[in-house]
User: Fold this.
Amino acid sequence: MKKNISLLIVLFSLSLFAQDKIHIHTVTPDNLVPGNPNSTYIDHPDLNGNFSAKIVVKQSYSPNDVLNDHPINLFYFNNQWTINNSDFAPLPIGASFNVFIGGSSTSIIYHQATGANSTSFATSIDDPLFNNQNPGPNAAFSHEYLPNAGVIAKPLGFDYTNGKRRIYAEDLDGFTTDTNFIIVVPSGNDSFTHESTPQNIEGPYTTIDHPLLNDNPNVSFVFEHYYGLEGNLNDFDHNLGLSYVPSLGRWLIFAQDLADFIPGLAFSILTAPIDGTLSIDENNLASKIIMHPNPVNNMTNISATEEIKNVSVLNMLGQEVLMLKGNSNTMQVNMEDLSAGTYFVKVQTHKGFQILKALKN
Assistant:
């Protein structure tokens, strides 16, 4: 009987690993790559030491997050995957990303753009999953940086021509050859197409209405703009992100620069449950630490249910501008000498740390 129970536990564990999942990664001062403020380490047991991970990353946004209006890429470095701003701009502390981790049933395609398979603005993927299939299966991709290879720092999407799925530059110019891509193709029924229309657009975003995502903050997605899908023939040269609005019970795709969204865009949506695994640097103590007042004129008070070891105040680039040692459950932080703007307050206790966003008047 015990053997049967053990076998069931093993099979259940394997089934969990086999599923696609979404890991939410947030940039903190501790997971920035030393000496490279444009790079952040992802810490997840399914990814660490796994160069062959079926991984795609898209920018996300939740309340108290920070926008990162830059194209991104992936790089496997020191046995961990990193997320990087392709234009080498510093990653802001508090920026978040959806990390799609494909399970055993999800296919992965590695593609390199070369002179032979590329034009001035696109590269053709030669794979039986896509060839002579229009539109073909839903999929998503990430630009992967490899040593001595090229980097392309612009919004990208899918299109289809001459029997091939392509990755193309939304500005229709200056595609860089010798660049690499990871493409994931799920095999289940957890993907669909979303079209932007005048009815679902408001300002910089389009609202997704689909039973896989509606009223479900525990399931998220990655996505790809697909030119020509469902007859939608528009380009959109903007870095895109995704967000969930609790008051609406809906997920959104939005322009990171807050430009007005346009109708006539189609997206491949790949959904997966949000994974509860936290990295060492992403311990959630939000319910135990309070900062008041916020916004801050000069002084703010921090209280915690454990003894506070120290408090660091960091600017938007992750640079420490104030450091205070603590020895009690409450602390007062004097921000009088700091310029007006947004800061991040890292509160460290013996159980971990929490990063709070503070607005200095």
Observations:
- The first strand starts at residue 21 and ends at 26.
- The longest helix spans residues 2-18.
- Residues 69 and 256 are 5 Å apart (CA to CA).
